[in-house]
Amino acid sequence: MKLSVNLPDKAYDLLIEKGKLETVGNWVSSLWEKQKIVIITDDTVNELYGKKVEESIKNEGFEVFTFSIKPGEKSKSLESAEKIYHFLAEVGMTRKDGIIILGGGVVGDLGGFVASTYMRGLHFLQIPTTLLAQVDSSIGGKTAVNTKIAKNLVGTFAQPDGVLIDPNTLLTLENRRIKEGLAEVVKSAAIADLKLWELLETIPNEHEALNFSEEIIYACCNVKRRVVEEDEKDVGIRLILNFGHTIGHAVEQTKGYGVVTHGEAVSIGMCQITKQAEKLGTMPNGILEKLTQMLEKFHLPTSLESWDEASLYEALTHDKKTRGNKIRIILLETIGQAKIETIDLEKMKDYLKQ
Ligand SMILES: NC(=O)c1ccc[n+]([C@@H]2O[C@H](COP(=O)([O-])OP(=O)(O)OC[C@H]3O[C@@H](n4cnc5c(N)ncnc54)[C@H](O)[C@@H]3O)[C@@H](O)[C@H]2O)c1
Ligand SMILES: O=C(O)C(=O)C[C@@H](O)[C@H](O)[C@H](O)COP(=O)(O)O
Ligand SMILES: [Zn+2]
């Protein structure tokens, strides 16, 4: 299956095909002239797929190097970025060369950030290997690193030259990672795709979800494609992709990066904002129940045991949807349709109440 993302300055394809990683070199050859390539990955993914990818690309006549980071959210940092810049310089990467990002959302965001800033920008390709990365982070061109103050505080918009999604890579993924990917799937359905929501309703648990991997990935990529084509730079409709994220990112930052995964935090964030919105009358009743049922079925957390409103509030003041003392929040009109409201930042305290 193929989807094209058409943006004012760039168009690229998302290829979704089981087993395609075996011939990844052909795909790279179809997009790039022979050149130097650095693969950015993490140690777990490198162990599983690194050799295969490197060999396949080398066989096409490219000169290939690999840089591997420690797996996990803590690696999505400026320190990691600097190490990669130095590696790129050591192997003599120039602006005619390219970067391939192989792994989950962490290497996706970090690698995209490095690619878009090294020598002011190199071409790059995304090969996402987690469900979360295949349904969300590899598409749309948001790159970022975290700092201790806030999640994704520093980043760029930079689109890849192509995205290769091989759902077979999900077969080696741990259950916790399948579940966190499903949180973003539920988000995509809740904000913009009732048909996907109805498909998810027929799936009993996270294990069965993998039987529908291609349909799910295609539907989510299509939601993201539609939204990003309309608003690449996140000034309007794209904000809906942030449903559950204002509180979710604050949870990730306050708990310490990697303690609660991104998907788990988004699951908690979607339920918390919906619960309070129903109380405050900014969302119709009944949505929380549906959302909670769906997320619990996939064994995702919907709340936290300990909740520090003050530190969560402090963390979310750095959300990129704030403008002065206002913030845009994402709510649901109904399942399948999101809405954006502007409120006083202080009012977020009401949305944080337990
Ligand atoms: N840019 C965006 O639009 C966007 C969207 C959503 C999320 N994100 C970001 O994505 C990040 C989370 O991504 P993630 O959940 O993929 O985390 P991740 O990249 O840390 O991957 C999770 C774990 O799975 C392992 N792994 C990856 N592929 C594997 C495979 N095929 N088999 C076995 N293990 C594998 C990794 O080594 C890692 O330990 C967060 O930083 C989040 O902010 C970005
Ligand atoms: O692509 C987008 O736009 C999103 O908001 C997708 C989110 O799932 C993703 O987590 C994104 O990285 C959040 O971006 P941020 O602008 O809130 O840092
Ligand atoms: Zn997200």
From TrEMBL:
The gene is aroB. Its EC number is 4.2.3.4. It is an enzyme of class 4 (lyase). Signal peptide: none annotated. Zn(2+) binds at E184, H245, H262. Residues 67-179 form the 3-dehydroquinate synthase N-terminal domain. This is 3-dehydroquinate synthase. NAD(+) binds at G105, V106, V107, G108, D109, T129, T130, K142, K151, T169, L170, L171, T172. One of its GO terms (cellular component) is cytoplasm. Its cofactor is Zn(2+); Co(2+); NAD(+). It is found in: Cytoplasm. Keywords: Amino-acid biosynthesis, Aromatic amino acid biosynthesis, Cobalt, Cytoplasm, Lyase, Metal-binding, NAD, Nucleotide-binding, Zinc. Residues 181-322 form the 3-dehydroquinate synthase C-terminal domain. Binds 1 divalent metal cation per subunit. Can use either Co(2+) or Zn(2+). Belongs to the sugar phosphate cyclases superfamily. Dehydroquinate synthase family. It catalyses: 7-phospho-2-dehydro-3-deoxy-D-arabino-heptonate = 3-dehydroquinate + phosphate. The lineage of its organism: Bacteria, Bacillati, Bacillota, Bacilli, Lactobacillales. One of its GO terms (molecular function) is 3-dehydroquinate synthase activity. Its main location: cytoplasm. One of its GO terms (biological process) is aromatic amino acid family biosynthetic process. It comes from Vagococcus fluvialis. Catalyzes the conversion of 3-deoxy-D-arabino-heptulosonate 7-phosphate (DAHP) to dehydroquinate (DHQ). Pathway: Metabolic intermediate biosynthesis; chorismate biosynthesis; chorismate from D-erythrose 4-phosphate and phosphoenolpyruvate: step 2/7.
